[in-house]
Amino acid sequence: MSDLILTTYDWVPDMPRGYVRDLRVRWALEEAGLPYRVESTPFHDRGAGHFAHQPFGQIPWLTDGNLSIFESGAILLHLGELSETLMTTEPRGRSDTKEWLFAALASVEAASQPWSFFKFSGDAEQTPMRGFFDGFVEARLKHMDAVLAEREWLAGDFSIADIMMADVLRLVDRFGGLADYPACGAYIARATARPAFIKAHADQMAHFAAADERAS
Ligand SMILES: N[C@@H](CCC(=O)N[C@@H](CS)C(=O)NCC(=O)O)C(=O)O
Question: Residue 55: which residues within 8 A CB-CB, separation 6 or more?
């Protein structure tokens, strides 16, 4: 039996399927060819056992033997330590990978997540706050587009930084937010064409579809 166990919800509503953050972890595990299994925790009834692994009652978390790790960024860093396919051992490339992994979370997702909540909720009212978040995400995308126009992957070879950045940008794309940023769009297209992404995505969809079947 594998030591690596990824935990996700047993079920989620249709809307987030294909975008639930266990996908980042599945993707990395598939890229690295590391053996793992997936376990479920209840979406509706989040007990003390869940909070012991993830203090906000969220998913994903990964256990590796006696280690339990939450936060998708920390999980990807952990997997990067296990596999040169995910993070080079060369110092400059390693530093670049970490830099861009954090940039994906703290600079791009920090802007894109509140923006996507507006889209998600269908709130199209042009309030000052809405305008602020539109400008916030546009400022990040403008610079990401310039960066991605010049390189295939963020830190030399494909890495955990690309898994994170592509997954963050994918959600913006879902709501049509990349129309003016062709290099970002092309980057997502090449990242999501990778067999490891295709498998990870299909596995997540199948996981939640199986929950529907059990309930019917
Ligand atoms: N910063 C966390 C965010 C985790 C997160 O937002 N997970 C979502 C699923 S994609 C979740 O559990 N949502 C349910 C909730 O927040 O109650 C990470 O990257 O792991």
Answer: 70
